[in-house]
Amino acid sequence: MTKDEILEAIKQMSVIDLADLVKSLESEFGITAAAPVAVAAAPAAAAPGGSAGDGSSADQDDEKTEFAVVLQDVGANKINVIKAVREVTTLGLREAKELVEAAPSRVKEAIAQDEANKVKEALEAAGAKVAVE
Q: In whole angstroms, what is the distance from residue 123 CA to residue 4 CA?
């Protein structure tokens, strides 16, 4: 088969068939179809510091751009915490309740630091113990 024939066959597939194809390719070749993340600043920041082994991990921590808000403990006001979780997420009542009862659990992931701090403040105001990672 040529590359053009493969592309034509793929064009004829349904979305479900394409999803199955991706899963099959991932398992066959031991890869994931995740989008690559470009980090151009980290290698440049590590170069002037001398050896890359000493400063590269510290530089990456300083330049962290995505954060997660973790509900550590519900506290005494479980109902207020559930309400706060519903306000800062798109979860329904049942999902918010399950998330709160499963503490420690991640409330939001891959968000900016400003948003993470706002979510933390809202949950702490409801009486929860929260950490930003």
A: 54
73 strand-pairing partners: 129
pLDDT, tens digit, 9 for 90 and up, residues 36-81:
544 444 444 444 444 444 444 444 555 678 888 888 988 888 899 9
What are the residue boundaries of the structural domains of the chain, listed by start?
1-35, 67-132
The hierarchical CATH code for the domain 67-132 is: 3.30.1390.10
**Is the dihedral angle over the CA atoms 19, 23, 25, 31 positive or is it negative?**
positive
pLDDT tens per residue, range 73-98: 888 888 999 999 998 888 888 888 88
The model carries a pTM of: 0.51
**132 DSSP β-pair partners:** 69
How far is the CA of 115 from the CAs of 44, 64, 88, 100, 131, in angstroms? 28, 14, 10, 19, 13
